[in-house]
Amino acid sequence: MNVGVFEQYSLQIVNEIFVANDIVVMVGGTGLYANAFCNGIDEMPNIDIAIRANIIKQYETNGLEWLQQQIAVKDPIFWQQAEQQNPQRLMRALEIVEATGNSITHYKKSNKVERNFNIIKIGLELPRQELIERIDRRVDMMLSEGLVEEVKGLINYKHLNALQTVGYSELFDCFENKYTFNQAIEKIKIHTRQYAKRQMTWFKKDLLIQWINPLDEFDFKTLH
Hints:
This protein is mainly alpha-helical.
């Protein structure tokens, strides 16, 4: 799955739902994918496969920290808004800057496409301390429901991009004795909070989002 495939897949699904329903509710937190669904995606330059292969090899050899340093130096504009724990996004940005000399942000023109349905955007916003407490409780709940056993069962697949994410990568490092178990859990909580903060920064730029506190009573008829 990538953002281009997701755009086409999600449009197909909602059109199927619209056959029998007037309203479709899409729930999620990944800004890039949500934006692709609502506005379409920008055209990116073609990348020489040798450049891509070399970056993947370097990442597999040197790890996420090397990749983060490369982006911070070579594409500092993107680094400030990037999902900094997401190696797939970072490798994509690095291959573009190495191939073209331009930041990946250079190609994000934001030329919106018109969808044949009305889109209403709702953002849920909690007070910061409440959000932190919920994140911590959620991580504890994931542990009690078998996260450690799940990650142990995936060790042979840890090189896959889908597993280079918060919750998996920290425990993989723990199993390799890079952290203690308690340190790994604390890192999961910290990285999740950091990700939530970047999500909020991304979505706050969208002035069409109508923000509500999910703990408050709200009349959805007022949405437009």
